[in-house]
């Protein structure tokens, strides 16, 4: 195994060694097991030698040997005489690809997510309390009372923000309807619009939000079912200006146009004022989409909708036909995490990672340009004269997944842009930028 492959492997392992307690050998075995079971390491993958892994992890060879021995006993690894240590060959090939082989991914910058839950303070929990619900059967459609009280108002709890976007789209749009979106916009919203048979119509934007004149003209021309807007923009990381939001809200209110406002990133403002709110000026026509995925952890799959009646009743009915109710256990766990964690620490860490990625890109890829994002989890980067769909394919050959700009455009435009998540740890970000630089220099 080459030294570059060993370094990439070590960066991935070090990122996981932050989890859990106990001896290093046990944590190392757990990290390798997790990578194998989630598919990040595929069957047949050769592992670094004990000596090489101990060197790059700066630990004793005995700790690595103990971890490998635990994996041998569990049947996860196998020794091949004269060749080395490999993951057992049983099982299907991972959808994530083949780590440390051509086309493999060791750093995923394509997904704008919390990379792991290690930043959370996890309280001691009574399992019996997690199972206690007012209805006893657990099908509490509006949501778990304790979580709803923490959120405030009369929210409808959903299985994450994406379900909220999907429910709002299905409630407001019909096949053939136009839906106004920012240009660019969140790819999950485009998918929901397409799924229900509607069509997305892009409205030009600047760093403050949709341009008011263009928004007004698009309403008159397309007679849309609703408009989709974001409080903190994904992919660009801009924060919706309060004055601009108030102007757009007034236009939508006067046109009796519903607005679906995506506030899933609203807590991740790194600098400057908080985003404006459409419901302040348009209280009877706004559906707000919220989520805990970006501030706690995506694996919770807990979000909520806020809307006026009768919209809320219609959304609740659609939710019931979709999945009956969101997991009560997940909601109760989310409520406990909310009580024991604040968002400020994670926000500050994200801002540091944003600046780290930006500095690495400036150093290794000075031709690339972007505007500093005031919020969110990603950089929206322009690669001059480059088709980023093709570049994304080449980047995977060097072990990095990136999201091409066309995924965020209603007309498949922005083909010279990439969305790069800065949520990974600094070491993995450095490895990823080095790999992107090699891709960029490829003839």
Describe this structure in words.
With about 450 residues, the chain is of the alpha/beta class. It folds into 3 domains: about 1-100, Arc Repressor Mutant, subunit A, CATH 1.10.10.10; about 105-120 and about 340-443, Aspartate Aminotransferase, domain 1 (Alpha-Beta Complex), CATH 3.90.1150; about 150-340, Type I PLP-dependent aspartate aminotransferase-like (Major domain) (Aspartate Aminotransferase, domain 2). It contains 15 helices and 16 strands. It has helices at about 5-15, 25-40, 50-55, 60-75, 125-130, 145-150, 160-170, 185-195, 210-220, 240-255, 310-325, 330-340, 345-365, 390-395, 425-440; strands at about 75-80, 85, 105-110, 155-160, 180, 200-205, 205, 210, 225-230, 260, 285-290, 305, 380, 400, 405, 415-420. The strands form 5 sheets. A 7-stranded mixed beta sheet has the order 4-12-11-10-9-5-6, sandwiched between helices. A 3-stranded antiparallel beta sheet has the order 13-16-15, with helices on one face. α13 runs parallel beside α15 (about 425-440). The longest helix is centred in the C-terminal third of the chain and has 21 residues, at about 345-365. It is globular, with a radius of gyration of 23 Å. It starts with a helix and ends with a helix. The model is unreliable at about 90-105 (pLDDT under 50).
